[in-house]
Amino acid sequence: MTPETADITDTIWDAAAGFVDRHLHDTDFTTAAFDEWITRDPRHRIAYDTLMGVARDAALNDALAAFDSPPAVNIATVKATRRKVMTYGIMAAAAVAVAAFVLPPVVYDQITPLSVYETEAGQPREVRLSDGTALHINGASRVEARITPFRRHVRLSQGEAYFAVAKDADRPFTVALDGGDVRVLGTQFNLSYMPGGVELNVYEGKVRLKGSDRKFGLFTRGMRARLTDGAITPLPAFDPDGGDWRAGWIEPDNWSLERVAQEFTRRSGTPIRFENDALKDKRIIGRLRLDDPQSQLETLAVVHGFEVARENGQIIIR
C-alpha cells in the first residue's frame, strides 16, 4: 500500500503567501504569472483566498499588535509602514517559512489547515504527513492532523492507529485522546480505543502518556498502558516483534470477547452483534487471524461455550 501525502503541500501555501503580499504592497505587480498559477490547480485558489482573508482580518492584526515582542523585521530590506509590516507578518505566519519574520506559534495554528483521515470498517489506510510521519489507520477510525513549523498536533477520536513518528527535536508530536494525550519526539507506537478506554503499545523509543489529572507515565519499547477516564494503568509487557493488526493478526492476552469482536470488525468490515451481553466479558487468550472472523469465532465458541451464527450479513454471538 502506497502512503498518501498531506492534502495541501507547503509549496502551495508559500506561493499563495507571496502572491497575497505582492497584491497588497507591490504597485508594479502584474497579473500574468498570478493568473497562470491560480488556474493551474483548484487548491491554489483555496490557499490564496484563505490567506487574503487572514491578511484583512482586523481581529488577527490586533492580536499580533498585542504581543510584547513584535516580529523581528530586517530593516535593511523591508522599509514599510507599521501596517505593511504587520500584514506581511501575517503572510509569513501563513506560509511555511519567510526568513524575515519570527512569529508566534499561535498564528500558525490558526491558519494551518486541518487534515482529516477517516476510514470505514474493513478499509485500513496508510497516510504520510507533511513532516514525514507515517500513520497506519485501522478501519472504523478517525485521525485529525495539523502540522506547523512549531508544533505537530494530531487527534485520534475513534478507532486505532499505528504511528511511526518522524524525529524532530524542535517539534514535539502530540496525540490528543479522550481523557489525555501522548507526547513524543520521534518513536513508534499504537493507540487503540477499546471497551473501557484507550490502550498504548510502544514499539520503539519513549512515549509520555498523560491523563486528565495531569499525572503521566513514561513508557518504552515493549511496554503497554491503558487510559481509562483520564487515569493511567500500566499493563503487562508485550512482544513488539510478534506481529499485530497491520499484518492481519491479533494476540489477545486476557482480552474481553467484546474487544476481540471490535478488532474483527475494524479489520474485516463484518458487523458483529451480541445477543447475550454477558458474553462480552469472556476472557480470550491466543493468536487470531483477522480476515476470517466467523471461523475464528466458531473455534473460540467451542472452547468458551457460546454459539455463532450469520444473519443478514452480520455475525451473531449468542
UniProtKB/TrEMBL annotation:
Xref: InterPro entries: FecR, FecR_C, Ferrdict_sens_TM
Domain of life of the source: Bacteria
Domain annotation FecR protein: ranges: 116-208
Source species of the chain: Asticcacaulis endophyticus
Keyword annotations from UniProtKB, A to Z: Membrane, Transmembrane, Transmembrane helix
Domain Protein FecR C-terminal as annotated: residue spans: 254-317
One Gene Ontology MF term: sigma factor antagonist activity
TM spans (from-to): 85-108
Protein name: FecR family protein
